[in-house]
Amino acid sequence: MPLQAIPNARDPSVLEMIKLMSGRRIEMKRRVERITQEDFAANIGIGTRWLREIEAGNPKSRLDDHFRCAHALGLSTGHLVIPLLFMEHRRVFPRVLLEGDLSKLETVCIDAIAQHNLETLSRQLFTPDADANPDKKLDE
C-alpha cells in the first residue's frame, strides 16, 4: 500500500485533514482525562456546541481554537504546526504522521532550530568582521 500524504498545499482539504486529526486528538485526551464537554468548554471560554464542532474536525473551526484546546489539555501542538510548515513550503506531509506521536519529530525540529541559532550566534560573536559589517549575510 503506498504511503498516503496530505495533498498539494493549495488543496483546501489539507487544513480539513489537520482539523479532523486535531479534533480527534482533543476529544481523545479530554475523554482520557474524564472531563465533560460542558466543563472543558466552560474552562476555555467557548460554547459546548462549538467544542463539539472542534472535536468533530469541522472545517469551519478555527485553528486558534484547536491551539487553545490542545494547550488546555496539555497536548503538544506539533500535530498542527508541523503539517502547516510542510504546507507553507509546498512539501508533502505523510498522513500517517498525523495519526502518530509527533513528540520525537518535534524534539528533532526544536534541536535543529536551537543548533541553527547557536551557530548563528557563534558566528556573530567570533567572526572579527561581523561587527564591522552587520548587514553582511551570515550564510555567505
Automatic annotation (TrEMBL):
Gene Ontology terms for molecular function: DNA binding
Matching Gene3D superfamilies: lambda repressor-like DNA-binding domains
Xref: InterPro entries: Cro/C1-type_HTH, Lambda_DNA-bd_dom_sf
CDD domains xrefs: HTH_XRE
Name listed for the protein in its UniProt record: Transcriptional regulator
